[in-house]
Amino acid sequence: MKKSIYDVKIDKLQEWLISIGQPKYRAAQIFTWLYQKKVVSFLEMKNIPKALAESLNAEYEIFQPGVKQKFISKIDGTVKYLLQLYDDELIETVVIPAGERTTICLSTQVGCKFRCEFCASGMYGFKRNLSQGEILSQLLIAQREGYVITNIVFMGTGEPLDNFDNVVSAVKMLNSPDAFNIGARRITISTAGIPEKIKELSQLGLQIELSLSLHSADESKRSRMMPINRKYPLKEVMSALKEYSIKTKRIITFEYIVIKGTNDSESDVDLLIKLFHPSEEFKCKVNLIPYSPVKEMEHKRPDSKEVESIRQALEDAGINVTVRHSKGADILAACGQLRIKE
Question: Domain 3-61 is of which CATH architecture?
């Protein structure tokens, strides 16, 4: 099986070009055709020699996952793809239009190891990491269908920092002027909290946004809801996030899914206020997200008054907080739901 060209970094492509007697500047030309003009054949690359196109075709393939299913929400226009990979594994990708901003939510793994009790992504376990090319192909599919993507979030199925190398190389391709040329500050990685990887990310100088899937400020409750907290306690995660914020000068976003009767009590809110006490050296914002019910799970959605009460309490405490409503409820747009159904 030939290697997917989307899995190749530009420096490796340059090395290969030199090895076959071609100038390395051809790599930038090839990337422009692939990622900006979005060709699906090497022979469409008009400013490279035909012999080089034939050599590329012999060495690499332009592989795209197949679109197994596509749904468009009648409520808000959210689009969900169920994509089939080369080994028949399935992943989900979501396109979220909102005025002038259109965000794509990318998956990074087939399944998930971490089995958060409220999330459908890990219900059938973890299969494998996605390659750089499989991550990028999700965006290419949406762009080829005419969606003008302005923002990228790594918030789909899987834990991005558990697939660190492939996610980072994909981010670099997204940001590269020779590839997608998307500004770093329009790219967000969401993590359940792996301190050493957060610290490693802070050393790369990428200037991307970082968000934490928090969902409880109570260590014991978070450990029950999110087993990853048993290995990486919130205290350690917060320390790593503080380091990231200071080093990159980025505001950390905390995602808090509000689940009725689980993490919405007065004591839960008090712990949140204590955790987010404003600090000049560690700026953050909080997104409250009303839970989207999953048929296979017993958790319940809070009513709007309960969410508003939490929002007001955090705002009164001086915390930057917004309510973010889930999109695409009528097309199973929450992570993992469509894959489970299939």
Answer: Orthogonal Bundle (1.10)
